[in-house]
Design brief:
By secondary structure, chain A is an alpha+beta fold. Helices cover 23% and strands 31% of the residues of chain A. The two termini of chain A are 23 Å apart.
Amino acid sequence: MAELPDEPTGWMSDRELQHVRGQLPVVYVNVIPVRISPMGKVTNVGLLLRAYDGAISRAIVAGRVLYHESIRDAIVRNIEKDLGIGALPQVPLSPTPFAVAEYFPSKGAGPFHDSRQHAVALAYVVPVQGPCEPSQDALDLTWLSPEEAASDDVAAEMAGGQHHLVRQALAHCGVLL
Amino acid sequence: MAELPDEPTGWMSDRELQHVRGQLPVVYVNVIPVRISPMGKVTNVGLLLRAYDGAISRAIVAGRVLYHESIRDAIVRNIEKDLGIGALPQVPLSPTPFAVAEYFPSKGAGPFHDSRQHAVALAYVVPVQGPCEPSQDALDLTWLSPEEAASDDVAAEMAGGQHHLVRQALAHCGVLL
Amino acid sequence: MAELPDEPTGWMSDRELQHVRGQLPVVYVNVIPVRISPMGKVTNVGLLLRAYDGAISRAIVAGRVLYHESIRDAIVRNIEKDLGIGALPQVPLSPTPFAVAEYFPSKGAGPFHDSRQHAVALAYVVPVQGPCEPSQDALDLTWLSPEEAASDDVAAEMAGGQHHLVRQALAHCGVLL
Amino acid sequence: MAELPDEPTGWMSDRELQHVRGQLPVVYVNVIPVRISPMGKVTNVGLLLRAYDGAISRAIVAGRVLYHESIRDAIVRNIEKDLGIGALPQVPLSPTPFAVAEYFPSKGAGPFHDSRQHAVALAYVVPVQGPCEPSQDALDLTWLSPEEAASDDVAAEMAGGQHHLVRQALAHCGVLL
């Protein structure tokens, strides 16, 4: 998740957070925002376009869980941070994620990679019903069909292994993989 | 689930269905209807009051999956059958259930029992947002707090082991067990 | 799962079963057999080679849940049927599947297809530790690396959409998709 | 999880760890160790007896995930720490937990409580096959039947809300709740 900007840091300064990131795994939520039909079927997947270190890549919604923040609150806060306050997310009923993504700072330690830190990300698929607009950190938000979102072309535009999570999310929702 | 009335029988007559029920496990959906807060927290659990063979018991929403019917469609149809067409269910994103309940016709074969049949029930927690009214087969629908729904008193009023499923559903949603 | 031979039919004759298959969804288990490292990491995926109607295809372990049979018993029986009695499966702790595959008899109704029937298959990943030999219905059993099992080449050799399930199983186990 | 002794601290001194614990949620694994039948059915639940601040309580296996440690490795290391190196755990195939327990430092913020820290614990049921002996930090290890483990008496002897997790684990495994 190296492409992501820093999140609000709770009671920690950026310098402290940077120090801690070299010593402890950090709890994240990873959210795949989707549009659904009235029957609960995924019709579109929302991917952010981000610029980072001169490169442009697509990304899902992601961010830290803060001290004394519940997972549900972290999901809502990070969706509002990335998609705006009008997104109207359908917050998951259960804190149990559909997958856990382990981002390691060294490449090749697993499918997920984040050069900044070791992050343990709880992953959720979250339908959003309202109008979304990418926050200042993101250049754009694109709604793709499940087929496009799972394609090799889009995978090539995602960083840190997040395309694996998008595909797993679609499979979890019963959509073609 | 012996307390449940027969469902629409697809292309089978009641007699055929009765015959098949002695020969094959039957696919069911079990739905725990809930009211939730805007933050996705379960605030109430809906239980039906049913009369069956002279006894009155509480029950969750349950019914068969019909031939060529998807699980999602079966969830919606059975909710409308038991709670009315105004219930406005939030259909699950994934067909993967939070639990599978195996109802056996002989008592003591497991926690779940249905004298009529061997049923394999896929269980889901489904938020309903609209007004609910019990169908003609149910005497009443009561919205209980999670604490009441998980209490021993309410467990004693449920048949077939369904109180186990209610408690597991609450635990799955992060509510006290 | 059209490529699969008929399973033992409980108390039903083949003719009865064929009749019922046109009227009710049938409960199946789908098992992806794997070899694992001592640390629980999937190292190999076992796929069967089957001949059916003159065509040869790869398949996972699959079979019906019989009347009054528990899911756990059905998993073990179907593994022994397809992989032999020496397979020594690590039976899943929980009857909750990692995925549910809905096989419809009409093509295009979803990712999974079975011309014979509407099957609702509960899917499990099951490590086997003993020597495996394919039963008389299967021509061969091949142990593939996760990369091979998830490849487009192998996908093209599988029928009924089962390659989706293999890929989802690998993603569920934290192996590259 | 206030009753638990400190774990190995990676590259952090105890003082640093204490500091960080007031600023970031800490990633934990929670493991319910079980004995199973050859058919995968839970026959016994292992609970530790711990002394902490003059009080004695029962506890499940728990510990931090260290920097650059995978969840699987953390599960094995913490089982060996609490149950000894002969325990022979059956490491979970998937890093996806059956539940997530959010331990908050303030009482009443949820079902789980840990006065030392905000911990996000990924929970797993893990069969152990070898002889177990509690480490020096634990006074004893007791194997209880599922009924005993889920009883109110045992719940009263557990701290931090962990009895909820034991009951949910048993329900997840299809054992009476």
